[in-house]
Amino acid sequence: MSQSDQIQPAQPVASGMPSPLEAGERILRRIMDPEHATGGGAASAIAGAMGAALLALVARLSVGRQDLLASDDYFEEIERHAQALAGMLMAGSREDADAFDQVLAGFGMPKTTPEERKARSEHIQSSLVQATHVPLQNARACAAVLDLTLRLRNRCNKNLESDLECSQHLARAGFEGALSNARANLRNIKADSIRQDFERELEKVSRMVPG
Fold first, then answer.
1. What does the alpha-carbon distance between residue 99 and residue 85 come to, in Å, rounded to a whole number?
2. Structure pTM?
3. Per-residue pLDDT tens for 156-198?
4. What angle separates helix 161-186 from helix 40-60, to the nearest 10 degrees?
5. How many CA atoms, within 13 angstroms, populate the side-chain half-sphere of residue 8?
């Protein structure tokens, strides 16, 4: 079973949602805001989400074309999966920012007494575990986007081939960025067993997409 086969269809997009340009401006403002922790991991997930959204567009605009080899059902299935992945990655971006907020909160905890130092260390370490888990989850979703793009290669609407390529580039950037973020947080986890488990998972996830 491929990565994309494991993704459930997304819920319909609610009315009143911001336009892509408005959403993009909000994201950029948040990344540049010194009061927030929206960094590389969150940005990578957003890149993957944009790749998934473009993929859904390509699939949707390939439906009804008599000159294509695949059926409408084929394209509609890919569109549903891509929409689900886009939603997962946008949620993953928020989870990444929240996880790193917790890491920063830990570093801001008092450390005067032994008890305070112990509580501070435990909070930082538990937060780092989450801050490593989330980008690995996002990397898996980006790998699923890339898997879906392969299913449209040489089958989609010819007028959208460049959009499909952009989808691949964005998903690849999201994948590599998420892995980089996971590696950075992993290095600071002190528990050997937890760190080694993550190292094995990181190696497994990194092999999902050929170099």
1. 20
2. 0.85
3. 889 999 999 999 999 999 999 999 999 999 999 999 999 999 9
4. 160
5. 2
Distance CA(118)–CA(42), nearest Å, equals 29
- CA dist., res. 98 & res. 96, Å (int): 5
Residue type, 155: R
Q: What's the sign of the alpha-carbon dihedral 77, 79, 80, 86?
A: positive
Is 31 or 43 the better-scoring residue by pLDDT? 43
| DSSP-derived secondary structure letter, 188 | T
d(CA 120, CA 122) in angstroms, rounded, equals 6
Q: Name the nearest CA neighbour of 129 among 178, 177, 45, 185.
A: 185
Give the per-residue pLDDT at 37. 64
Phi, psi of 51 (to 5 degrees): -60, -40
> Which tokens belong to 23?
């959403």
Residue at token pair 């590696």 = 183
